[in-house]
Structures are given as structure tokens and as C-alpha cells.
Write a structure and sequence with these properties.
heterodimer, A: mainly alpha, MetI-like fold, about 75% helix, B: alpha+beta, Rossmann fold, OB fold (Dihydrolipoamide Acetyltransferase, E2P), 5-stranded antiparallel sheet, 10 helices, binds adenosine-5'-triphosphate, binds magnesium ion, MetI-like (chain A), MetI-like_sf (chain A)
């Protein structure tokens, strides 16, 4: 019989010992910035400083009572909800389309990926050009089909800036949804549809009773990831509008940036960042509870 | 239930002929088995009858209707798939109810039908479970129950037992047969397992390379194979084929017996075998060897009941014989059976 090794008390110590360096690095990477932010949020940090007098929760109190914060919060929800719901709908529609067999399907799939691969800066430049009120192709096309009668100022008007930003965000990130959903769609056994076909299910019934239940977990997970990422998204908005005009596209991450690096109120910026973090955690908790129930029903 | 006619049906994929000019009639209430090696076109033929595949040529008639171009749901058929194709997120109850629900039936009617079908296949106690919480045999029965609730005119089954282990397959086959007799279903059943085919089929259709090689009762197919393919495809071990000048002789291993076994009988063809190997299988012994002239060193296998006393040793010669009327003869060019005496039903029955 081969010699078997039983776990000795000393083994555990060795295990911990060997894990310590990487655990320490991880802790430093996560903990140091987090603690620093928490620390800063409790101080009145002014121009050109990294610390200041301790003022307790004053920064938080300021945030929760300022109109700027609440506007940014509302903007964030409009931005997240608008972008994610449009991305998910567009992504699902295109994934269903691309899941069918047709000539040039491979080419179509490659083309759809393009927006996701183009660097944000490049994409933003192109879109700013397309949104331009005089030379932009968007106004040109809308006017030539008669949908609008005079050029619209897409990015510089408080009523259309958020819509414009959402359009670019959706355009940039819907391919992610397509790819995720296409993967799960292709894992549905063809036999399920054939059985349903024989059982007399219509195309809609097949979608509702086979496709949807099958892709639901991945659909929800994708929506979750997109929600987190969109919540954090900074550069698309900042590069397109800088949060303006006025504060019509100022989301929480933009506000953090403006407070910290334009107004040089680092303490207030840190407080807003922490509140943002907290909101996200609550959202995720709700979401995971929801997912768990959906999974249990599966 | 209905009669089904397959008229000169063929299917070409690209430039590959998967099914080549098949004609076949399934009588009302008949259980017909499609048997053949992998890739011979059984599933393709079945799928054309189901409407999942459009024939390249030919017609399919179900009942009084030319169904060739009808959608599957308009053919009044049911199909049991190899992997059962149950809906994983629905309970067994909802799986069985599915055809009724999509047809817009509601309430009591659905419930009665589902419980009736589940009762027929004995899964009433499992209805609240999801497919992944059940065994392969239970899934197979669920698929069967689902196919029953619509009172289909025709059942199509594509290797429904192939995912079960040997023991379960045996009992499932038994159940299926009992069930078929009770319901009187018209069925087209695909398998590549000859034991399943012989045990289940009223008639067996042997296919190869997209073509039908023979149609007949299990007895007819076993005793009077239409060609050398059928002769060697059916039976384990298969029929011995012995090349002779101008003909190919066919001998079933169990018909090749020691001369002593026949006593004073006449009408025997004697054969001397140089025995190379003896395999003991329990109830039978397999004797491998080569025949002396005039049988040209042909390699053969004889199958002897262990209860038959025989003084046979490896490496020695032994004297065997076959009854003349149990010999089969095939054309060496075409492989087709030489017009053997047309089997009388009575004599067939006495063999079976
Ligand atoms: N959609 C298709 N496109 C191209 N060739 C196909 C297609 N479906 C089947 N074939 C080919 O047609 C032939 C017959 O296939 P079929 O599935 O009918 O075989 P089968 O007799 O059911 O085999 P098995 O016992 O392995 O299931 C095979 O050679 C297969 O590769
Ligand atoms: Mg097959």
C-alpha cells in the first residue's frame, strides 16, 4: 500500500505562511486606497493638500443636502437605466438575429463587435463629429428624411445631451451583450425547438417557453455586469460633454471628478465616492437576492 | 391512428445522398422498426416523415393527406427524441402538458390528460420534479407521455432507448411493447440495435447506405435475408458466408452442428472444420475454425449449446454438418439471395 499523508497541524501553518505574501499584497492593494478615501472623506481637504482638519461627517451631510448631489444621482439613474435597458434590448434582438443561419453570418458577427473594440477616445471623436449641428451626419440624415426641420444641438442642449450620451454608450457596449447572449443561445439544443415545433408551438411560444427561460440566468448576469460598469462609466460622458451643459449629464463619477479636481474639494469628492459605492453595494445585494430567487425557480 | 405511405422518398445533402428512393407503407396500428448501421439515413428518413426535413424528392402520405410539405404540427404526429428533448426548466407535469398548453387548452382538460398519460407510463409520483431530478428511464417515459397527450396519428421514435443501460433498456423495451399493444399505436421506430428491432417490430426495415435492403417480419429477415448485407448485419455472430464456385453459401452459426448431433438424418451437407479457437459463453460455445475443401478454407463460426456433448478440441479437425434446407444461397456478383423456396407462414412459425 502506498504511504498516505495525513494532515498535520504543522501543515496548516506552512499553508498560511506561504499564502501570507500574496495575501499581504492583495490587502495593501485593496485596503490602503479604501482606507485613504475613508480618511479623506472625514477631513476638510483644500486646494493642493492631501489632508486637512477632521470634520467628522460634515462632508456627507453636505452631499446629502446639496442639490448638485441629488441631480447627479438622478442623472446616474437615467444614464444607467437608459443605457442598460437599451443595450439589453438591442443586444438580445441582434443576438437572436445572428443566431439564425444566413449567408455572411460570420462577417456580420465580426462587424457587430467593432464598436466594442474601437478605443473610447476615437469613438467619442467620431460621435462628436456626427453630432455636430452644422456638419454632423445625424442632423443631415434626420433633416433629409424630414424628421426635424432645423439642425439640433445634440450635445450642447440640456434636453438632448443625456440622450446623446446614452446613444453613444449603447452603441459602444451593446456588442458585449450580443456576444454574451449569442454564446448561451447557441447552447440551446436544437432538439428542443424541433420538439416544440412538433408539439405545435408558434415562433413566439418557442421564444417565450424555450429561449427565454434558457438564457435568463445569463441575461440577468449580463445586465448586472453592465449595470455596474455603466454606473462607474466616466470617460465617455466626460469626453463628450464634460458633464454639461449645466449639470445635465453630471453623473456621480463625474461629480466626484469635478469636486476633486476642478473644485479641489477632495473631502467632499471622497464622501460622494463612498456614497456611490454604498448605493452600488445596495443595488447589488438587491440584485443578487433577485437572481437567487430566479435560479431557485429554474 | 393512420396508415402512412412513404413514396420514393429521397434526401440529398449537398451532393451526398443520405436517403435514396425509399418506399414503405406502415399499416394502421403497425409497429415498424428502421434498422441499420450508423449513418445509413434512418434518422433522416424519420425526420422527413416528421416534417423536420424536407424530402428532396418523393412524397409522404399520412392517413388520406399528402403531408410532404405540411409543417410538423399539422401532421398530427408525435416524436420521441434520442435525448428526449424535455424542456429543462419545466416540471415533468408541465413538460407533458406542453403540447396542450400551446394548443390553448386550459384547466381540467389539461390536468386529466396529463394524469392519464403519466399513469400509462407510470410516472404519476414524479410529476412535480424537473427533468434533471429524474433518471434516464423516467425521462424516456416522460417523453413518451408527452407524445401521448395529443392522440397523434403516428408515433415517431428515434433511438429512444439508446441512453439507457442494458438492464433498463430491456425492461423499457418490454414496457414499450406492452404499451404499444394496449394503445394500438402506429409507430415508426429507429434503432441500430438488432435485438431491439427484432423484439419490438411487427416488421423490420433494414437500411444501408440510404437504401432499403429488406422489409419483413423479424423471422423473415433472420431466416431469409434478402442479401449478404442483411445476412451479416442480423445475428450475433452473423451468418457465415462461404465463397463457392458460382455461389455464396450462407450458414447461421447455430445451424452448423457436429455430425453426431443429427444422428441418422438425411439431407445434410457435411463440412470438416479445422478448429482454431473455442469460446465458452455460458449457455453456448462458439467454435472458430476454417472449413476444409470443397469449402476453400472459409473461416466460419459455429454456435453450440453447451448442453450438446461434442468432442471438439482446438487445433484438431472436427466433423460438422448443416441441414440442406437451412443453407442459404446468394449471388456472388450482386449479393442477392437466390430465389430460395418462398417461406410458408406455417414453416416460419415453426421456427420461431
Ligand atoms: N443536415 C445534414 N447535412 C449534411 N449531411 C447530413 C445532415 N444530416 C445528416 N447528414 C448525413 O446523412 C447521413 C445519414 O444521417 P442520419 O442521421 O440519417 O443517419 P442515422 O442512420 O440516423 O445514423 P445514426 O444511427 O448514427 O443516428 C449521414 O452520413 C450524415 O452525415
Ligand atoms: Mg440517427
Amino acid at each position: 500500500m502506498a504511504e498516505t499523508h495525513t494532515v498535520q497541524p504543522g501543515d496548516r501553518a506552512i499553508a498560511y505562511l506561504t499564502l501570507t505574501p500574496s495575501a499581504a499584497v492583495l490587502l495593501l492593494l485593496v485596503a490602503v486606497p479604501t482606507i485613504t478615501v475613508i480618511g479623506i472623506s472625514l477631513q476638510d481637504v483644500g486646494f493642493g493638500e492631501m489632508s486637512g482638519p477632521w470634520i467628522g461627517l460634515e462632508n456627507f451631510a453636505w452631499a446629502l443636502t446639496s442639490r448638485t448631489f441629488w441631480t447627479a444621482l438622478k442623472n446616474t439613474f437615467v444614464w444607467v437605466f437608459g443605457s442598460v435597458s437599451l443595450e439589453m434590448m438591442l443586444g438580445l434582438g441582434l443576438a437572436l438575429l445572428l443566431n439564425r443561419t444566413f449567408a455572411l453570418r460570420g462577417v456580420a458577427r465580426a462587424i457587430i463587435l467593432a464598436p466594442y473594440l474601437i478605443p473610447t477616445v476615437v469613438a467619442v471623436l467620431v460621435w462628436r463629429y456626427m453630432f455636430h449641428d452644422i456638419v454632423g451626419i445625424l442632423n443631415y440624415m434626420l433633416m433629409s428624411v424630414g424628421l426635424i426641420s432645423k439642425p439640433m444641438v445634440w450635445l450642447a442642449s440640456t434636453s438632448t445631451a443625456m440622450l446623446s450620451v446614452i446613444i453613444v454608450g449603447v452603441w459602444k457596449f451593446f456588442p458585449f451583450v450580443v456576444i454574451a447572449l449569442l454564446g448561451i443561445l447557441q447552447s440551446i439544443p436544437q432538439e428542443q425547438y424541433e420538439a416544440a415545433e412538433i408539439d405545435g408551438a408558434s415562433a413566439f411560444q418557442q421564444f417565450w417557453r424555450i429561449t427565454l427561460p434558457h438564457i435568463l440566468p445569463v441575461f440577468l448576469l449580463t445586465a448586472l455586469l453592465r449595470t455596474i460598469w455603466t454606473f462607474h462609466k466616466f470617460e465617455i460622458i466626460y469626453l463628450l460633454t464634460g458633464g454639461g451643459p449645466l449639470d445635465s449629464t453630471t453623473t456621480l463619477p463625474i461629480l466626484v471628478y469635478i469636486k476633486g479636481f476642478a473644485d479641489f474639494e477632495l473631502g467632499r469628492a471622497a464622501a460622494i465616492a463612498l456614497i456611490t459605492f454604498f448605493i452600488l453595494v445596495v443595488l447589488l445585494a438587491v440584485y443578487f437576492g433577485f437572481m437567487k430567487r430566479a435560479e431557485a425557480r429554474q | 391512428m393512420a396508415r402512412v405511405e412513404i413514396r420514393n422518398v429521397g434526401k440529398i445533402f449537398g451532393n451526398y445522398k443520405a436517403v435514396d428512393d425509399v418506399s414503405l407503407t406502415i399499416e394502421d396500428g403497425e409497429f415498424v422498426v428502421l434498422l441499420g448501421p450508423s449513418g445509413c439515413g434512418k434518422s433522416t428518413l424519420l425526420r422527413m416523415v416528421a416534417g423536420l426535413e424536407l424530402p428532396t424528392f418523393g412524397d409522404i402520405v399520412i392517413g388520406e393527406t399528402v403531408a410532404t410539405r405540411l409543417r410538423p404540427k399539422d401532421r398530427n404526429i408525435a416524436m420521441v427524441f434520442q435525448n428526449y428533448a424535455l424542456y429543462p426548466h419545466l416540471t415533468l407535469y408541465e413538460n407533458i402538458a406542453f403540447p396542450l398548453r400551446v394548443a390553448g387548452r386550459r384547466g381540467d382538460e389539461v390536468d386529466k390528460k396529463v394524469r392519464w398519460a403519466a399513469g400509462l407510463v407510470g410516472i404519476e409520483h414524479l410529476l412535480a420534479r424537473k427533468p434533471r431530478q429524474t433518471s434516464g428511464g423516467e425521462r424516456q417515459r416522460t417523453a413518451l407521455a408527452r407524445s401521448l397527450v395529443r392522440d397523434p396519428a403516428l408515433f415517431l421514435l428515434d433511438e429512444p432507448l439508446s441512453n439507457l443501460d442494458a438492464k433498463l433498456r430491456h425492461s423499457a423495451r418490454d414496457e414499450l411493447r406492452t404499451f404499444q399493444e394496449r394503445v394500438g399505436m402506429t409507430a415508426l421506430y429507429v434503432t441500430h440495435d438488432q435485438v431491439e428491432a427484432m423484439g419490438l417490430g411487427d416488421r423490420v426495415v433494414v437500411m444501408q447506405g440510404g437504401r432499403v435492403r429488406q422489409v419483413g417480419t423479424p423471422e423473415e429477415i433472420y431466416l431469409y435475408p434478402a442479401d449478404t448485407f442483411v445476412a451479416t448485419f442480423i445475428g450475433t455472430p452473423p451468418m457465415n458466408l462461404i465463397d463457392m464456385p458460382g455461389e455464396v453459401l450462407g450458414v447461421r452459426p447455430e445451424n452448423l452442428m457436429p455430425v453426431s448431433f443429427f444422428g441418422q438424418e438425411s439431407g445434410l451437407r457435411r463440412m470438416t472444420m479445422l478448429v482454431s479457437r473455442i469460446e465458452f459463453l455460458g449457455s453456448d460455445k462458439l467454435i472458430y475454425g476454417a472449413l476444409d475443401d470443397p469449402f476453400g478454407q472459409a473461416k466460419v463460426i459455429a454456435r453450440l449449446p453447451s448442453s450438446v456433448p461434442a468432442d471438439i478440441r482446438e487445433g484438431e479437425r472436427a466433423h460438422f454438418a448443416v441441414r440442406e434446407h437451412e443453407l442459404r444461397s446468394f449471388d456472388p456478383q450482386t449479393g442477392l439471395a437466390r430465389p430460395a423456396p418462398i417461406p410458408q407462414r406455417a414453416s416460419v412459425a415453426s421456427h420461431g
